[in-house]
Design goal:
The structure holds two protein chains of two kinds. By secondary structure, chain A is mainly β. Chain A has no helices and twelve strands. Classes of the chains: A mainly beta, B mainly beta.
Chain lengths: ~110, ~120
Amino acid sequence: AQKITQTQPGMFVQEKEAVTLDCTYDTSDPSYGLFWYKQPSSGEMIFLIYQGSYDQQNATEGRYSLNFQKARKSANLVISASQLGDSAMYFCAMAGAGSYQLTFGKGTKLSVIP
Amino acid sequence: GAGVSQSPRYKVAKRGQDVALRCDPISGHVSLFWYQQALGQGPEFLTYFQNEAQLDKSGLPSDRFFAERPEGSVSTLKIQRTQQEDSAVYLCASSLVVAGGGHDTQYFGPGTRLTVL
């Protein structure tokens, strides 16, 4: 069984500042993938970034980076230079070895303050 | 279109009515998924198709839920005799390759918000 834990129900960040959204996971699979999605109020889940469990380097996509600490089973999302449009729900998710279904956390609501 | 589309975006049903939710995946995507997202929660897996074959329906909450993808493209999620606990957002996602051979990214549609009165 896989489990994703997001302990921050809500976060505030000043515009142009960086913010870290926490995610810890639990799995017995030796191979797995970790994903972050953004869900604005419109409802669509927007893919942000992916990290494979065997990837040697932390994933980066533009202003998004994933701080992957395998031993601690954490996969925190770092957003640099926050923008007002970053205000949304953020979900961490994982897929196990040979698995297709995503297991999601409960999400973190990020609010960017002007 | 370029992304996954779903219709209707909003559906209000009276308890006991049947509803049908449609998903148009990204063209050429082999895998299609349905998820249910309750208010304030993350999405939960319902079912998975590889082309027209439904390979996993373990997440469907009851036999009132039925999904199909007859031609390997458009999919329909049907809920019979709706109950208030069925109220949720139903998300459809698709991915390019056969899932299980790696961790291919799933791309989601905007969802259908179902409200059962």
